[in-house]
Amino acid sequence: MERILGQNQAIDLLNLQLSTGRQHHAYIFHGPVGVGKFTTALTYARVLLCHDRQADLTGRVIACDACPSCRLLTGLTPDAESNPDDDTAGLTTAHPDLHVIRKELARYSDDANTRNRKLTRIPVEVLRSALIEPANLAPRLGTSKVFIVDEAELLNPAGQNALLKTLEEPPAGTTLILVTGNEDRLLPTIRSRCMRIAFSPLPDQAVHDWCVKNCPDLPADQKNVLVEFASGSLGRAQLITRYGLLSWADAVLPALDRAAQGKPSPDLGQQIFSFIDTFAADFVKAHANGSKEAANKLGADMMWSLIATRARALLAKLAGSCATDDPIANEQALAPWLAMIDATEQAQKLLGSNVNLSITCDHIAVALTRGFTAAC
Questions:
Q1: Is residue 49 one of the residues assigned to a domain?
Q2: pTM score
Q3: Looking at the predicted structure, is the pLDDT value of residue 135 above 70?
Q4: C or N: which end of the chain has fewer Cβ atoms within 10 Å?
Q5: Is the distance from CB of 252 to CB of 228 less than 8 angstroms?
Q6: Where does a domain end: 198, 230, 259?
């Protein structure tokens, strides 16, 4: 697990369980997208399935790399979470006791309706065939089985309820890991039966180092923008570079600065919509059976993050220069950027309630303008 960046607290907690032999039967790995949750789940599974665990020089429990289980898992992509265009990463392995459940498994269903539907959810049929039924079978290679559910928030309530019995009465040697970027969408009955492991955004330096290695020709000022835009997520950094999303920052951030100065752009909302819509169309082209709706939400999440991250950075900078004896002036100086953060949170709620994307983008532009006007 030493290859996993910036998640020492999560790794230490998992290692403590391994070293004491008191592993929980079910986990929720939760935190932002692209920070190592799925990578950690795969690595932890490798250790759990190892027939002859070892200790490294720091005392951490590691896989032996030599037993039949480890040999089958040699070459398993360690950074599948940070490769956003690889739909099949982790879907299949040669190991009979490691099962990875993703929405893309719907493509291989025996049911035509399940195969042909858009990939916006993990169908309950997939959950039954890939997890619930295999969980009741004996391990084939050793004494353990591991099931990893990626994007577990895509399980609808029916699917989550179908999973409850397995969580309540897991067969011996069975470990379930639910990986999610939105823990709140899991039912309380699911969360209460799992051990929660939190993953944090990566340090800016880790993202910067990734930029230096993978984008050597990118100018220094653009690297800084990329680090800010990525918000501690290597997965997001890859999306930004792969789909040319630095153009968003070049266009949107100056428009926000002008709006904060009382000079709003009348077409800001439609400009934001156009960026998101174009990204979603390109994303769907790169993913068979991809859902435009899901791609729109992914693009919107990145757009809201771009806006809110810039606002928070400016808030921190302004707060450091505020006079301690003039609270009214301080409030006026900070208000536009607080309004910007509020606007992104409102937009996220609207889109989560299935409000039309174009309307949502217009709403955020109007909310931003109003907040800046009131502050000015």
A1: yes
A2: 0.84
A3: yes
A4: C
A5: no
A6: 198
